[in-house]
């Protein structure tokens, strides 16, 4: 959607082995500045591993990885200051107050301020952006789970990152907090500068936020594209329901628009109660994961 063209993430043939277990077999994908990518995949697929390698927190077994033009295995402090990381949860500093902690962490980013990107993010504005203004003077250990998660997000943003990694950012959010968080990511994406890579198990969230969806299954990226394009790649069909002469009909078709046109052409005014249910991202996701895992099993058996 909002891209300026510069390649921010470049991953090719990434492999990761823990002991004797290969988790990533050859992961390849890229991202351009301003894109929002959602990395989906079943539990244990290797999403966190992939993100940790890109963050420079984990050494890879093989493959090429460039993040903001740098190999994360050799990232400098200056490089790290351009990244934002939201981990599973910030457990330390329970006695600190929210505002104090953000102001304190912000000081680490001040030396990396540039004319183009003023660092850190002003504490008051950041609290407002993540919806924590009214809790700014509370001690961290007194925050609810959802408020703590907002703080995690604020910590990831305090250095005004060019690339933001969000690992399951809305786990534990209530619907309102989730809605507000989605607005925040969309605002970040709208500025055309921040690239976002998030992992989630919430397919509606991925559909809503991401320009591109990546599905990791069987150790590989088995799908990479906008949600609508992925739906077209699978056999998942749309469901069309209608009523004619008092009888209910239902059919599955991959081309619902053409089908409905034909239906009206044939029966016109006789048709009522028309409903079209598009193949959902969930249908597509389940189908692609099944195919990806089956291919990995076959490859293993063939070895
Ligand atoms: N430090 C480690 N040592 C050994 N195995 C590990 C280690 N970290 C992760 N694994 C294994 O690697 C696989 C991928 O784990 P990872 O956490 O990357 O998956 P994930 O896709 O993020 O899963 P989830 O959706 O459950 O968070 C899992 O089978 C996990 O048990």
UniProtKB/TrEMBL annotation:
Gene3D superfamilies attached to this UniProt entry: P-loop containing nucleotide triphosphate hydrolases
Location within or outside the cell: Cell membrane
Broad class of where this protein is predominantly found: membrane
A Pfam family annotated for this UniProt entry: ABC_tran
Keyword Transmembrane helix tagged: no
CDD domains, alphabetized: ABC_DR_subfamily_A
Gene Ontology molecular function terms on file: ATP binding
Membrane topology term: Peripheral membrane protein
Every ABC transporter domain range: 9-243
Record keywords, A-Z: Antibiotic resistance, ATP-binding, Nucleotide-binding, Transport
Entry keyword RNA-binding: no
Similarity annotation: Belongs to the ABC transporter superfamily.
Protein name per the record: ABC transporter ATP-binding protein
Lineage, opening ranks: Bacteria, Bacillati, Actinomycetota, Actinomycetes, Kitasatosporales
């Amino acid at each position: 959607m909002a891209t300026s063209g510069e390649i921010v993430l470049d991953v090719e043939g990434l492999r990761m082995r823990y002991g004797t277990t290969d988790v990533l077999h050859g992961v390849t994908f890229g991202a351009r500045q301003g894109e929002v990518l959602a990395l989906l995949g079943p539990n244990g697929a290797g999403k966190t591993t992939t993100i940790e390698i890109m963050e420079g927190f984990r050494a890879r077994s093989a493959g090429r990885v460039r993040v903001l033009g740098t190999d994360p295995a050799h990232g400098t402090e200056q490089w790290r200051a351009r990244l934002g990381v939201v981990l599973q949860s910030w457990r330390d500093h329970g006695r600190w107050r929210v505002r104090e902690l953000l102001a304190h962490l912000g000081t680490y980013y001040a030396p990396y301020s540039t004319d183009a990107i003023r660092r850190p993010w002003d504490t008051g504005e950041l609290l407002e952006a993540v919806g924590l203004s009214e809790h700014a003077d509370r001690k961290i250990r007194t925050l609810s789970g959802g408020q703590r998660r907002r703080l995690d997000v604020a910590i990831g943003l305090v250095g005004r990152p060019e690339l933001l990694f969000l690992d399951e950012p809305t786990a534990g959010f209530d619907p309102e907090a989730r809605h507000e968080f989605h607005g925040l990511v969309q605002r970040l994406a709208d500025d055309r500068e921040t690239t976002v890579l998030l992992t989630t198990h919430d397919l509606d969230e991925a559909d809503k936020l991401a320009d591109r969806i990546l599905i990791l299954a069987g150790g590989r990226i088995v799908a990479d594209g906008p949600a609508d394009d992925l739906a077209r790649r699978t056999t998942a069909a749309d469901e069309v329901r209608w009523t004619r002469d008092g009888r209910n009909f239902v059919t599955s078709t991959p081309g619902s628009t053409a089908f409905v046109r034909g239906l009206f052409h044939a029966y016109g005014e006789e048709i009522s109660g028309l409903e079209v249910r598009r193949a959902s991202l969930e249908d597509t996701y389940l189908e692609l994961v099944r195919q990806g895992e089956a291919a990995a099993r076959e490859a293993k058996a063939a070895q």
